[in-house]
Design a protein that fits this description.
By secondary structure, this protein is an all-alpha fold. 77% of the residues lie in helices and 0% in strands. It is globular, with a radius of gyration of 22 Å.
Length: 438
């Protein structure tokens, strides 16, 4: 039975969507809705107490330093141009395959998005090089656009992933375990995308002409242009995988290594260093503002008792667990059409996670699924943010971008079905490495 507090919590969520649809920035919409709900539930003094406690616990926690460390590392890599040779190196290895430049785009986007922790960064960095190259070889325009869009989304799965970090911060789930849990799904999705390209080229051979073959020596020489990224990835992920350092320490190590390498390559100057601090600080401030607003919203929803009420009502329906999961996924597909991945995670995780755990699934598995749903939302109309980023870069009609991603969306849903049917895809590697699955 819905109590008054539950109705207040539901009303605050409705208020959030109204404000968001009116064009209010997501963080301000969450902040206003959360504080309004807290005032009605606990009064003004109670709202002030809950708000101040939530904010202080976030900014004072050592665990929350993980995100600024990875953002600093990403900003150093981006601003110093460390990843500019990534596409060329991948092309040397893969360009001779059918649709090889599209496969190259997927791998390069995935690696760059993983290192920078944000999909849009790979679209701007890799897409700017890949699109003219694919146009030169007369690649199918839709396949070219779709491969870049799909490849960039893989960065949310392959560590270090900003979305896994945010999810871990919101749920108290081990960030190290989450980062490792995304590796196998990331490899799975990359493989499915490559299959899409190969099938596309089989059906339409002229869609992806082969590039000239390269020698073994040329392949080896191409690695010298990306050794810096390889070193950073090896140290950061090796430290996390083998338990040598925490994710926060790994992020700090990655930032330090990126800075040292940039200095050794003479890519660091006072002007660039100043830009790194400004860009990194702006990004950190923006994300922390969103997380802070979400923490207040989460506290309000928890105090309203809405998650418990919904979970209790849903479980009393005695539906098969798999059917409940499918219903939740459908909700996320609809949400993903209108809000970005981070907002979707921050707003809904407190409501759906208890239901998912009652169904016998782990928070680790749900984290992977939630990130996947956000990625799918980034590719679907009418508000697919990834598609909009790519449209702005490519200067192509938005409809062509959406047409290009349709085959990759089919692969997304195949991959999603496999992750739901076989949760071990997410949980196997962390368990092998001795991480607890909760």
């Amino acid at each position: 039975m819905m109590t008054t507090a539950c109705w207040i919590g539901l009303g605050a969520i409705v208020l959030f969507f109204i404000l968001a649809l009116m064009g209010v920035k997501i963080c301000y919409a969450m902040l206003a809705s959360g504080i309004a709900g807290l005032i009605f539930i606990n009064g003004i003094n109670g709202a002030i107490s809950v708000t101040s406690t939530a904010l202080f616990s976030m900014v004072s926690s050592f665990d929350y330093a993980v995100l600024p460390m990875f953002i600093l590392m990403a900003t150093i890599i981006t601003e110093t141009g460390m990843g500019t040779s990534l596409y060329s190196s991948c092309r040397t290895w893969l360009g001779h395959l059918p649709g090889g430049l599209c496969i190259t785009s997927i791998i390069a986007c995935a690696v760059f998005a993983a290192v920078t922790a944000f999909p849009w960064a790979s679209i701007m960095a890799v897409g700017a090089i890949a699109l003219p190259e694919m146009a030169r070889y007369k690649y199918d325009k839709k396949m070219a656009l779709g491969s870049i869009a799909a490849g960039s989304e893989l960065g949310d799965l392959i560590p270090p992933s900003s979305m896994f970090i945010v999810y871990g911060m919101m749920t108290g789930t081990s960030i190290g375990t989450l980062l490792i849990s995304g590796i196998m799904p990331g490899i799975l999705m990359a493989g499915l995308y490559v299959i899409v390209i190969l099938i596309w080229c089989k059906v339409k051979p002229n869609a992806g002409p082969r590039s000239p073959k390269t020698t073994a020596k040329e392949k080896i020489m191409a690695l010298k242009d990306v050794w810096a990224l390889i070193v950073v990835i090896m140290f950061v992920m090796g430290g996390i995988l083998f338990g040598i350092c925490t994710p926060t320490e790994a992020g700090a190590l990655g930032a330090m290594l990126a800075f040292i390498i940039a200095c050794l390559q003479k890519k660091m100057s006072f002007k660039i260093f100043k830009q790194i601090l400004i860009s990194g600080g702006s990004m950190i401030g923006m994300i922390y503002m969103v997380i802070a607003a979400a923490m207040i919203m989460k506290q309000m929803i928890a105090l309203s008792g809405l998650p418990f009420t919904i979970s209790h009502a849903v479980m009393n329906m005695h539906l098969p667990n798999i059917l409940l999961i499918i219903v939740i996924l459908i909700v996320y597909i609809i949400l993903g059409m209108f809000v970005d991945c981070m907002s979707m995670v921050l707003l809904t995780v407190g409501i759906f996670l208890p239901i998912v755990q009652d169904c016998g699934f782990s928070a680790i598995w749900f984290g992977v699924i939630l990130v996947r749903m956000g990625d799918i939302g980034g590719l679907t109309p009418p508000m697919g943010m990834t598609a909009f980023f790519l449209k702005g870069l490519a200067k192509e009609p938005l409809v062509d971008v959406f047409k290009g991603v349709i085959p990759f969306l089919i692969a997304d849903f195949v991959g999603l079905g496999l992750l739901v049917a076989f949760p071990a895809i997410c949980e196997w590697l962390p368990s092998v490495l001795g991480y607890a699955i909760t």
